[in-house]
Amino acid sequence: MENGDDAAAKVYENIGVYLGHTLAFYHSLYGMKHILLLGRVMSGKGGDLVLETCKKVLAEEYPEVAAQIKPALPDEKFRRVGQSAAAAGLPALKEE
Questions:
Q1: What per-residue confidence (pLDDT) applies to 38?
Q2: pLDDT, position 96
Q3: Torsion of CA 33, 36, 42, 47, to 10 degrees
Q4: Block means of pLDDT (10 residues each) for the chain, length 96 residues?
Q5: b vs e for 57-70, b when ≥16 Cβ sit within 10 Å of the residue's Cβ?
Q6: Is residue 90 part of a domain?
Q7: What per-residue confidence (pLDDT) applies to 1?
Q8: Is 14 among the domain residues?
Q9: Of 7, 16, 39, 73, which is most buried with the most CB atoms under 10 A?
Q10: What range defines the domain where residue 23 resides?
Q11: Number of domains composing the chain
């Protein structure tokens, strides 16, 4: 993707399409409003393309959902380690 490979861009676009449809479905189940997209696949130009495509799918296919949810990306460093940082921030379970 960084080298302008069209095949790689298509992969990221497809991920964005699937993500858009999935977020609309999850919204119907959970009613979430803010979605933070994390992980290595969301880093760099590819992640930006995923988010852009996702928002396009939501706007075109699910305008009522697009008006209610806000998928977002953190800064580049946090995108790459975001899942581990999120997991580390989970509260400890109480032992009985």
A1: 82
A2: 66
A3: 50
A4: 86 97 96 87 89 97 96 78 71 76
A5: bbeeebeebbeebe
A6: no
A7: 73
A8: yes
A9: 16
A10: 6-84
A11: 1
Would you state the pLDDT for residue 70?
92
81-87: list long-range contacts, CB under 8 Å, 24+ apart. 82/36, 82/38, 82/39, 82/42, 83/38, 83/39, 86/36, 86/38
Q: Would 96 be classed as within a structural domain?
A: no
Residue 94 lies in a domain: no
Nearest Cα to Cα of residue 24 among 53, 49, 57, 51: 57
Alpha-helical runs (H) found in 1-96: 6-30, 44-61, 63-66, 76-88
Evaluate the CA torsion angle 87, 90, 95, 96 in order and state its sign: negative
Q: What span, in angstroms and rounded, lies between the C-alpha atoms of 43 and 59?
A: 23
Q: What pLDDT shows up at residue 24?
A: 97
Tell me which residue of 75, 71, 83 sits closest to 36, measured CA to CA.
71
